[in-house]
Write a structure and sequence with these properties.
The complex is a heterodimer of chains A (113) and B (115).
Chain A: E1 3-5, E2 9-13, E3 18-25, E4 32-37, E5 44-49, E6 53-57, E7 60-65, E8 70-75, E9 84-91, E10 101-103, E11 107-112
Parallel strand pairs in A: 2-11
Antiparallel strand pairs in A: 1-3, 3-8, 4-5, 4-9, 6-7, 7-8, 9-10, 9-11
Chain B: E1 5-7, E2 10-13, E3 19-24, E4 31-37, E5 43-50, E6 53-57, E7 64-68, E8 74-78, E9 87-94, E10 105-106, E11 110-114
Parallel strand pairs in B: 2-11
Antiparallel strand pairs in B: 1-3, 3-8, 4-5, 4-9, 5-6, 7-8, 9-10, 9-11
Classes of the chains: A mainly beta (113), B mainly beta (115).
C-alpha cells in the first residue's frame, strides 16, 4: 500500500531551526515534493528531490534518502509567517497515470515569539 | 497567485443536494487534478484529466464525477451530498510532465459546507 508519515504538529521559536521529517512506503517512487499550506489556502511548492542528498533554497532545505524511504524539510531562521502546514508528497512511478502525487497528512508548524 | 482559478470560493448546501465546482487551469496547462481535503485528512487525490480525457482515478466516490471541456476548464460534480462531504476541494494543473517532474499548481480551493 501507499503510506506517508509525518508528525502531526510541531512548535518552534522565532529565529530557530526546525526539521520536519517524512517517511514513505509507496509502490513506486519518482520524486518527493514539499508544499507549504497556510490555513484555508492553497498549497504552494517549496522543494523537489529525486536524487539522494540535500537541496538548498534560501532558508529552506530538503533532504532525501531513497534507500531509507526518508526525507526532511529544514527551515532556518524561523519567522512568524512560517507558521503553516507542511505537506510531504511522493510522486508515484511515472507511467500512464502521469506520476500522481500521494500526500501525507501534513505537519502543522507553530512558530512562537 | 498560481494562475489556477476556482469558483465558487464558498458553497453552503443541504444533504441530498447536488453541486458543481469549477476550475480553470493555468494558461497552457493540459492536466487538471482534483483533490479533497477534510479537517482530519491530508489532500486526497480524486481524479485527473488530461486534454479532455480521464487520465487517472483516485479515491473518488461514485456520487462524484468530473469532466474537462475543450477549453480545458474542468468541473467536479458532487451529488447526493452527505455531511461528510464537507471539505476543501482543490484543483491543480500542470503541463505534460517532461521526464518525471510533476509539480502541480493549486487553485485557491472551494470550501463546501453540507448542512
Amino acid at each position: 500500500g501507499q503510506n506517508i508519515d509525518q508528525p502531526t504538529e510541531m512548535t518552534a521559536t522565532e529565529g530557530a531551526i526546525v526539521q520536519i521529517n517524512c517517511t514513505y512506503q509507496t509502490s513506486g517512487f519518482n520524486g518527493l515534493f514539499w508544499y507549504q499550506q497556510h490555513a484555508g489556502e492553497a498549497p504552494t511548492f517549496l522543494s523537489y528531490n529525486v536524487l539522494d542528498g540535500l537541496e538548498e533554497k534560501g532558508r529552506f532545505s530538503s533532504f532525501l534518502s531513497r534507500s531509507k524511504g526518508y526525507s526532511y524539510l529544514l527551515l532556518k531562521e524561523l519567522q512568524m509567517k512560517d507558521s503553516a502546514s507542511y505537506l510531504c508528497a511522493v510522486q508515484d512511478s511515472y507511467g500512464g497515470s502521469q506520476g500522481n502525487l500521494i500526500f501525507g497528512k501534513g505537519t502543522k508548524l507553530s512558530v512562537k515569539p | 497567485d498560481s494562475g489556477v482559478t476556482q469558483t465558487p470560493k464558498h458553497l453552503i448546501t443541504a444533504t441530498g443536494q447536488r453541486v458543481t465546482l469549477r476550475c480553470s487551469p493555468r494558461s497552457g496547462d493540459l492536466s487538471v487534478y482534483w483533490y479533497q481535503q477534510s479537517l482530519d485528512q491530508g489532500l486526497q487525490f480524486l481524479i485527473q484529466y488530461y486534454n479532455g480525457e480521464e487520465r487517472a482515478k483516485g479515491n473518488i466516490l461514485e456520487r462524484f464525477s468530473a469532466q474537462q471541456f475543450p477549453d480545458l476548464h474542468s468541473e467536479l460534480n458532487l451529488s447526493s451530498l452527505e455531511l461528510g462531504d464537507s471539505a476543501l476541494y482543490f484543483c491543480a494543473s500542470n503541463e505534460i510532465p517532461s521526464g518525471t517532474y510533476n509539480e502541480q499548481f493549486f487553485g485557491p480551493g472551494t470550501r463546501l459546507t453540507v448542512l
